[in-house]
């Protein structure tokens, strides 16, 4: 993989996040976890290229993001949808889902964790984080639709600077 300026990414973030999905990975080379995500965004904020992700507190990856203040996003391509089925349905607390999914971790010199299978990777450093609250929805039906005892806790939103982008 080679690094590119994040401003040179040509992929449409709406398309690749919503259709291709992404792996959110956080931790260190000694201990880390990854999860599938299909909610997020990318753009420009505070004069920086940024990515926004949303993670429920009950997800194993949540604790790693909280500890390190960083995460990476890996886009594998639609041909790897089987990977997302494993990393999105199993917990890293209970199984080595990275090995089960056939992923091969790559550790960058800045502490990022990507995969050999990554076609586009983003190393991110958290700039801002906040938990979504029911009272802040202007359309309260969304809170009822996506949150509750049987659906899971409110997501925490992370806005992070894209410090490095990688392509094949």
From TrEMBL:
Q: Which Pfam families match?
A: Flavin_Reduct (PF01613)
Q: Where is the Flavin reductase like domain?
A: 21-167
SUPFAM superfamilies registered for this protein in UniProt:
FMN-binding split barrel
Which Gene3D superfamilies does UniProt cross-reference here?
A: Electron Transport, Fmn-binding Protein, Chain A
Q: Name one GO molecular function term.
A: FMN binding
Highest taxon listed in the record's lineage: Bacteria
Q: Which PANTHER family match?
A: FLAVOREDOXIN-RELATED-RELATED, HYPOTHETICAL CYTOSOLIC PROTEIN
What is stated as this protein's family in its record? Belongs to the flavoredoxin family.
Specify the protein name.
Flavoredoxin
* Organism whose genome encodes this protein: Rikenella microfusus
């Amino acid at each position: 993989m080679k690094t590119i300026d994040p401003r040179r990414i040509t992929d449409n973030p709406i398309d690749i996040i919503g259709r291709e999905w992404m792996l959110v990975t956080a931790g260190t080379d000694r201990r880390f976890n990854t999860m599938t995500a299909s909610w997020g965004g990318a753009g420009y904020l505070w004069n920086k290229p940024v990515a926004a992700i949303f993670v429920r507190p009950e997800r194993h990856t949540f604790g790693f993001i909280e500890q390190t203040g960083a995460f990476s996003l890996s886009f594998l391509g639609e041909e790897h949808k089987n990977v997302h089925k494993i990393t999105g349905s199993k917990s890293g607390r209970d199984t080595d889902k990275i090995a089960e999914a056939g992923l091969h971790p790559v550790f960058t010199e800045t502490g990022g964790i990507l995969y050999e299978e990554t076609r586009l990777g983003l190393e991110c450093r958290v700039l801002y984080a906040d938990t979504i609250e029911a009272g802040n929805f202007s359309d309260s039906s969304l809170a009822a639709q996506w949150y509750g005892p049987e659906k899971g806790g409110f997501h925490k939103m992370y806005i992070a600077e894209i410090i490095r982008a990688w392509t094949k």
